[in-house]
Amino acid sequence: MKANVHTIHHYEDEPELLRWIPGVLFNRFWSRFPQWVQDEGAYEEHDETRTTFALEQDATKHVIEYRLYKRLDDFNRQFAENAKVADVALIDVWTRVIDQTVWPYTAMS
């Protein structure tokens, strides 16, 4: 059975802080829709930048691919070259200023 691949492209300048996101997303699907999870969802951390898991809904297999980018140029290139209509982009829009207050980038300009 051919799978539909849905990719979440996530740009984050501190990716080590967000490696938990695909696991939480997978666990949320599993707790809400356990019938969608076959073979423990085939959850796999390929490396520190790519995680995949599988869901099956109404005999249609879906693979959720989570890609984490630390460099904006990598994100821009990969998203431009590989994004499909149903893909999602998550972009880090926060920055820390000297006093440790967190501000959006737009407030800094």
Structure, described:
With 109 residues, this protein is an alpha/beta fold. It has one domain. The protein contains three helices and seven strands, in the order βαβββαβββα. It has a five-stranded mixed sheet with strand order 2-3-4-1-5. β6 and β7 form a beta hairpin. The model has no long low-confidence stretch (mean pLDDT 84).
Summarize the structure.
The chain has 109 residues and is of the alpha/beta class. 25% of the residues lie in helices and 37% in strands. The protein is globular, with a radius of gyration of 16 Å.
Ranges with pLDDT <50 over ≥5 residues?
none
Helix amount:
10-25%
Please state the overall shape, judged from the principal axes of the Cα atoms.
Answer: globular
Helix/strand order: EHEEEHEEEH
Q: What is the spatial order of strands in the main beta sheet?
A: 2-3-4-1-5
Q: What is the makeup of the main sheet? A: 5 strands, mixed
Mean pLDDT: 84
Q: What percentage of the residues does DSSP assign to strands (E)?
A: 35-45%
Rg is 16 Å
- Record field, number of beta strands: 7
